[in-house]
Amino acid sequence: MLELLQMWALIEVIGLIGFPLALMVFHNLPDRGWAFSKSLGAIVFVFCAWCPLMWLRFLPYTRLFLVGVLCILAALALFGWRKTYHEVGKVLRVNLGYVIATEIIFLGMMCLLGWVRSFGPEIRGWEMFMDEGFLASILRSEHLPPADMWYAGSPINYYYYAHFFIATLAKLLNQPSYIAFNTGICLLFGLTGLNFFGVTCNIVAWARYLRSKVHAGGTVSQEHPSTVYPPLAGGIVFGLLTIVMALLMGNLAATQLWWQNHGMVTTTFDQAYTFWVGPSRVINKTINEFPAFSFLLSCFHAHVLAFAFTVLGIGAVFNLFLEPTGRGLNVFGESWRLVLTLVCTALILGGLFLMNGWDYPTYVGLCLACIALQQWLTYQRNFSWVLVVDIVVACVSLVVLTFLLYLPFFITFVSPAQGVGLVKPGNRSALGSEWLIYGIFAFVVLSFLFASALKRPLLDLAELYPQETPSWLTLSNSRFAWLLVAILLVAGLLVLVLVPNSATLLVAAGIALAAFLLALYHLGDRAHAYPLLLGALAFLLIAGCEVFFLRDVFADQDPRMNTVFKFYFQAWALLSIASGAGLYFLWQSFRPVKIGALVAYWWQMAGVVGWYALLLLFLLSGMLYPLQAPYARYGPGKFPLPSRLLASTGSLNGLDYLRSDPTYPGDYDAILWLNTHVQGNPGIVEAVGAEYSEYGRISIFTGLSSPINWPGHELQWRVTMLHTAQNSEDFNQRQTAVDLIYQDPDKKIVLQNMARYNIQYLYVGPLEYRKYQAADLHRFAAFMQIVYNANGVTIYKVNV
Q1: With DSSP H G I counted as helix, E B as strand and the rest as coil, what are the percentages for the chain, rounded to 5?
Q2: How far apart are CA 384 and CA 388, in angstroms?
Q3: Is the pTM of this model over 0.85?
Q4: Per-residue model confidence as pLDDT tens digits over 517-547
């Protein structure tokens, strides 16, 4: 577990290096980017290592190189600290409690997942082999781009940047991949929680500040967010609630399973598996993962690894949204602040494509929409062609920069996407399934929308803008409001009649539209409008999945699987912030209105108490999953236990299970020998097997490239490449070549096939003996060098 503290300490140092930059970039936020400084500093450090390595491929990807990059950034940070120490002092003086809270949350979240992961740290099952392979291959690579561990001779054709992020930190700490796998996921859990906390606290702090000024009879129309230091302590409770909803809470499907089984969900293996996995498989032929499941699984997939940085992106967009006066490119600031904010915002949003391409359009789209709304406000809500030009200049500059910064990746990457398809009515989601997934959020968000619809615009903050809200947005204009409601009702009925199985589409689209209109209605109070926009985007994603899907290799059997999988994960993040911040505005709204009748007052109080009781019931229902799922995950069939305690291994070594695994005796020591004695990537041949199997274990724990393994996964990553005859032929011949190496008695055939893929090592272990029982697997000694032979494992090397 010491390795986890090493990772924490490294990020703390990087966060201190990154804070002067964060202070400049997040200049409009009340905390000046303190909560985001760790993520931003790490992103900048990793990019400053990755970019020169990709352009100048003779540069070595070594620990010494990384230390040099970090020292340069540290020197720049010292200069930044000298320039900003007065402002840093103000932030600390006003918000010392908040700063302490962020540090406790970061360390606490890392240790929480580290503790849970220590119950079963092994890298085994699901798709962990794939992600461990990426990590090991990157760590072994002497130059970039990193080699594919299961497709010798080719670089990784996948969204590997988040894996590179963890590998780079691990290389600095000299942690092997099978430990970095676990320390890395714990680190990202901590950063994700910290970023969720930071976004919500900043939203609430700015909202509280505006209200306090108005209620005190002051004016805020001339104040720039970068010149004031609102206290953040009042947002801590709502930030913690956001963390609970985003990362700890399960969905109502888990509650339903618990209820149906009378609370006995960890008694047998089948019960346990159904309880902790079933809630992520609510909709037929799709996956609806949510963060509590993903982190409990220790899923090292792209969507989970990128999660912290998507929330960082939401924070960066809110910073731009708060800019009160900047027109055109000045939405990013002025002078050096403009350059730093533009580049760092592009760095954050552009990096999402390299981490998880599904995230890029969602969060870039959110950013462009907020820039457009921010520009409209700076022009006092008056349309002009100058406004259009300024919006286009700001948006195009940002989008272009997101691609230019990461151009080396796009030069070699071939997307596996194969276009967009339309969802058939029979494949759409039932409304009841959506309730099981998002019911808790729906309760909070719909309450938030209802309260927002009843509020007067801006809570009487009309002085912020000289012009009143346009009449077409003023809900007090009863004629327009009722006409709009009538049109929407008619349109909804037509959709229900004409479009089969469209209830989810209609409801989600209706909520998205209502949230967007209410965001426009409250646009002058940007802290109120922003969570409404996030809620609108979340329900728009849900509605979009009822109409469109992205074509991939699963398009024929499970067309919506990956589309729902990736976009629902995003919707969970957006709804978490919309709900967490929305609870503050609901709390403000639930103060009883002073009216003459005492009975009416008590009716109001009863309604408020009833709503809070329902909220508590929903939250407790959501907490059944994190309280029960760890037992289901790590101890199926062993419960109930009187102590209800799991046995921790006290380790985060993901390879250690092989030491005592009777199925693969000798593999553990052989893997350690390869990692110790083999430098570079001379490649290795091992038996090929299907995905989700134990095959490929040597290449994934060593990072040595093999001709092919888990061919179904390689097909997913390279499907577009295989449209050409040459690439398709090469793909189809690789498994045959491996079979020939193990089975053909002719040594020339063996050596030719190894040379074809530049492979120098041949592995013969338990799986190879099991698969090639009819072959003489000892014959290689006649023409190859035995470099390792112990416990039933022999490793051969081609004679040079």
Answers
A1: 65, 5, 30
A2: 7
A3: yes
A4: 999 989 989 999 999 999 999 999 999 999 9
